[in-house]
Amino acid sequence: MAFSSSTRVILVSLLLAFSLTSLTFARPNVRAQDDDLIGEVCSKTRNPSFCVQALKSDPPSGGADLRGLGQISIDLAQASATATSSLIDSLIKQTNDPKLRERYKSCSENYSDSIGDLGEAKGFLNSGDYGSVNIRASAALDGADTCDGGFAGPPAEPAELKQANQKLEDLCSIILVISNRLA
Questions:
Q1: Helix-helix angle 98-127:66-94, to 10 degrees
Q2: Are 36 and 29 contacting, i.e. CB atoms less than 8 angstroms apart?
Q3: Among the listed residues 130, 124, 141, the one whose alpha carbon sits nearest the alpha carbon of residue 80
Q4: I want to staple 133 with a disulfide (CB 3.0 to 4.6 A). Which of 16, 47, 124, 138 is the partner?
């Protein structure tokens, strides 16, 4: 069976188009799988909508596996804890109220510990010691919670500090879910 050169070109073109089309459809939807992993992790956190927003705000999260999401979560928590520590330092300088100053100093110590805990969590994640990641993330969360709890009575906790405490607690919640899944 002989084909003319124009027929061969058409057949080769059709074959190539068919091959490329089937490769495209055969390729799994990587983005959907990534979204599924983020959704699955976030559904188990204390604030799922915050979790999704936080993880998706980091571009590498789109292709990250569970361990990669753990790294991203720890990085976000460290940045949050560091920013909150700076906020607390400025609140200490701004207040003349001795009661508030003591509370802020206590929060400053808590956040210093939380920053250290998160640094250790990163090391444990890198070494595959997921149980220790969980312990350190719990300790970091406790630092924010203890700071928040120090304002049970008057004078009131500033709204920006309350939000910052909540943010770190929510970020640590993500780390806890991921470390539990990895363990």
A1: 160
A2: no
A3: 141
A4: 124
Radius of gyration of the chain (CA): 25
Cβ-contact 84, 161 below 8 angstroms: yes
Ordered structural domains, the chain, with CATH? 29-182 (1.20.140.40)
All residues at 6 or more sequence positions from 115 whose CB lies less than 8 Å from its CB, including other chains: 78, 81, 82, 85, 140
In sequence order, which ranges of the chain are alpha helices (DSSP H)?
5-26, 30-42, 48-56, 66-94, 98-127, 130-149, 159-182
Owner of token pair 């719990």: 138
Cβ–Cβ < 8 Å for 175, 70: yes
pLDDT at 46: 97
**The pair of three-digit structure tokens given for residue 76, joined into one six-digit string:** 């976000």
At 64, list the tokens.
């990250």
Inter-residue contact 70 to 133 (CB < 8 Å)? yes
What pLDDT is attached to residue 60? 87
Q: What is the pLDDT of residue 3?
A: 52
Q: How far apart are CA 52 and CA 75, in angstroms?
A: 15
Instruction: Report pLDDT for 166.
Output: 98
Q: Residues of the chain whose pLDDT is less than 70? A: 1-35
Backbone phi, then psi, for 93, in 5-degree steps? -70, -30
Q: Evaluate whether 155 touches 99 at the Cβ level (below 8 Å).
A: yes
- How far is Cα 81 from Cα 158, in angstroms, rounded to an integer? 16
